[in-house]
Amino acid sequence: VQLQASGGGLVQAGGSLRLSCGASGRISRVVDWGWYRQAPGKQRELVASLSISGITNYADSVRGRFTISADNAKNTIYLQMNSLKPEDTAVYYCTLRSLVTFWGQGTQVTVSS
């Protein structure tokens, strides 16, 4: 399984970005999809997850601003990020968890103040 993330970039505080992550390869027994991020000097953290049954989970810092969704027909997940803040600046990674967890290559999000 390969995950390809895209959609990162530079945006001003208060702006929006939409990240996408497409999966290719043999995909089976999916448990959930997720978005993680890692800021410089900080540990990687879970931003949002979406289970195969449709249950979502968000970090407190993004709840109400970010939305995770999926297009199962396209094997693609999205992260809509609104009201972005400088502290959202990080490399964002998508994941697909089945028997193992697959990681995408990361996409940089930079929010200027």
Give an overview in words.
With 113 residues, the chain is mostly beta strands. Helices cover 0% and strands 56% of the residues. It has strands spanning 2-6, 9-12, 17-24, 32-38, 45-51, 56-58, 66-71, 76-81, 90-97, 101-103, 107-112. Strands 2, 4, 5, 6, 9, 10 and 11 form a seven-stranded mixed β-sheet that branches. Strand 4 and strand 5 (45-51) form a beta hairpin. The model has no long low-confidence stretch (mean pLDDT 95).
Annotation keywords:
single chain, 113 residues, mainly beta, 7-stranded mixed sheet, 4-stranded antiparallel sheet, 11 strands, 56% strand, globular
* Anisotropy-based shape: globular
Specify the number of helices.
0
According to DSSP, the number of beta strands is 11
| Helical content class | under 10%
* Secondary-structure element string: EEEEEEEEEEE
Mean pLDDT level: 95
Intertermini distance: 37 Å
The low-confidence runs, each spanning 5 or more residues with pLDDT under 50, are: none
Task: Please give the largest β-sheet.
Answer: 7 strands, mixed
**Proportion of residues in β-strands:** over 45%
Structural class: mainly beta
* Radius of gyration of CA atoms, rounded to a whole number: 13 Å
